[in-house]
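Any chance you could type out some protein's one-letter sequence along with its backbone structure tokens so I can compare the two?
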Amino acid sequence: MSSGTELSHGPTAGEYIAHHLTFLNNSGEKQADLINWGLVNLDSLFYSVMLGLVVLFFLYRAAAKASSGVPGRFQAAVEILVEMVSDQAKGMIHSEESRKYVAPLALTVFLWIFLMNAMDLLPLDLLPRIWEGIYVAAGHDAHHAYMRVVPTADINATMGMSVAVLLLCLYYNVKIKGAGGWFHELISAPFGNHILLAPFNFAMNIIEFLAKTVSHGMRLFGNMFAGELIFMLIALMGGAWTGVNLPSILLAAGHYAAGLSWAIFHILVITLQAFIFMMLTLVYIGQAHEGH
């Protein structure tokens, strides 16, 4: 990933990174990359919804073009994905009725997160510069034209998805075991069904739900945020050009070599993180179907 931005007469390295790490939110002011219940990160919301619609269109087209004859490349690729997710769901969730809903959900989650992660492969300044031009044309200050294009590098987005998975787990716990059965499980496991152990059992189960939810969202966020930051550091190497001299030439060569190497490796990262999030979704929902 290259930057195309010349920094010799522009912002410092710190200002450049800080600008790229700031979300476009509904406050109109710069905010830190932390959960804030009073803010909506409009850029994360826009790109996540847009890519979600792309996934739905992709799956709709695959279903519309499906035939019993020799499949084309597009249909074959979708069938491979469907079979892969279906096989994983069968190994995790033994209820055929639940799999009718959970398997398509897992497939959608995998493709959606993959596309959101893949936004990191776009040139770093491409979409932010386009937005800056629109922002300035509307009469605003270019310094406040914030735009982040990787929704999964926003902890609010990843934690939102992990909370949604938690709610599904709670739903299936109640659906499969009944409200009374699930509550009995909360107070009787893992230490045993004894009245004196009930508070400790309940506390451990609540901690388990919270830990799984937090780690589920934080894992995806941490990997994508780190990858985005590395692309920014690589972009700074290319932006340090000061003329035809040895340091500038070496930095430019390092910029292209490191950018290409990291982009190729990052293809594995974005795919693996989407797969891990999908698999953990299946694992957690599968655990909701089982008793201690």
In short: The radius of gyration is 23 Å.
